[in-house]
Design brief:
about 325 residues; alpha/beta; D-Maltodextrin-Binding Protein, domain 2; 2 domains; five-stranded mixed β-sheet; globular
């Protein structure tokens, strides 16, 4: 039976600062996965309005969460920079996280556990839903030098992947000025000339192309095989609520397999939570979800890339950051 996913309103675009994290103290994980009289275990899950959240919505739509006695309360977040502080402050139990941003936050002392790799950059770059757009085809990577370029979060995965892609194409990423914009507003900024380019992900990348912006290159040109988004909890939650988190991981992994194979299903589910025109959903690209959530090897490639661009000061201990809840 197909269920209709429900979404809570966005909690606001303002970022929760690390100062607030310190003031609020550690996470109280006692509420995570608490059984109700019905036997359902509730999880507050941070999701984005982009295609990266497709596996979690599919797990509900296809009844997979119900099979595992999980009830998901969706909390819409703009990006990992917003989601991770909310996670640490017990406003979320689980969140989809920016691959690099999560590693960076953990390196800076936040008590995070990555219990699954959600998406990975495809070997076929044409399948990548995140694309660098410019106003028209006359703009090359060389023209980005000295100009503003929009990413969804400064110091996050998209800034890192943009740098690698620009350099792979022969540009100089070190001369580009990176600015942060919400994905939904990026096409307007490129079209108006406020920024020279932007890395836009689905569903907004298809919408950008349909309005006439030029797709310069997919981000996978510089990040093939690199992990993209992750499933993250706090260390306390991963230790104290391993059973429900393991069932959540199994659910979204199964759902990821389904949408990888069945793009008609992907489009049907996407239409239930994406606020874009149906014409966009009919042709949009979808992320590649991992075959195994607990294959963390792609994080090593991500770390190597971050060290190359000096976005990390030192190599993090991936073993202490990740946890296999299925073992």
């Amino acid at each position: 039976m197909r269920c209709n996913p429900r979404s809570l309103p966005a909690l606001g675009a303002a970022l929760v600062t690390l100062t607030l994290i310190s003031a609020c103290g550690g996470t109280d994980s006692s509420s995570t996965g608490t059984p109700e009289s019905s036997g359902l275990r509730e999880l507050r899950v941070g999701v984005t309005a982009t295609a990266n959240s497709l596996s979690v919505y599919t797990a509900e739509a296809e009844g997979i969460f119900a099979e595992h006695n999980i009830k998901v309360d969706y909390v819409t977040v703009t990006n990992g920079a917003e989601a991770i502080p909310m996670l640490v402050n017990d406003q979320l139990d689980v969140t989809i996280g920016d691959g690099f941003g999560t590693i960076s936050a953990a390196t800076n002392g936040l008590p995070l556990s990555v219990f699954g790799i959600s998406t990975i950059q495809p070997s076929d770059v044409a399948l990548d839903p995140a694309i660098i757009f410019t106003k028209d085809k006359s703009v090359t990577v060389d023209d980005l030098a000295g100009k503003k370029f929009a990413v969804s979060a400064l110091g996050g995965y998209h800034e890192l992947s943009t740098k690698s892609t620009i350099d792979t194409l022969g540009g100089d990423s070190g001369k580009v000025e990176y600015v942060e914009l919400a994905p939904a507003s990026m096409a307007d900024a490129v079209e108006s000339g406020d920024v020279a380019g932007a890395l836009i992900t689905e569903p907004y990348s298809t919408a950008a192309e349909q309005r006439g912006l030029y797709p310069l290159a997919p981000q996978a040109v510089g990040t093939q095989g690199v992990s993209g988004t992750l499933w993250v909890a706090t260390k306390d939650s991963a230790a104290n609520n391993a059973d429900v988190l393991a069932d959540f991981a199994a659910s979204v992994e199964e759902a990821g397999h389904l949408v990888n194979k069945d793009r008609d299903l992907a489009r049907t589910v996407a239409a239930t939570y994406m606020t874009v025109e149906p014409e966009v959903i009919k042709v949009m690209r979808f992320p590649t979800f991992t075959d195994s959530l607990t294959d963390f090897s792609s994080l090593n490639t991500l770390v190597d890339l971050a060290l190359k661009y000096k976005m990390l000061d030192k190599e993090p201990d991936i073993d202490s950051l990740t946890v296999d809840l299925t073992g």
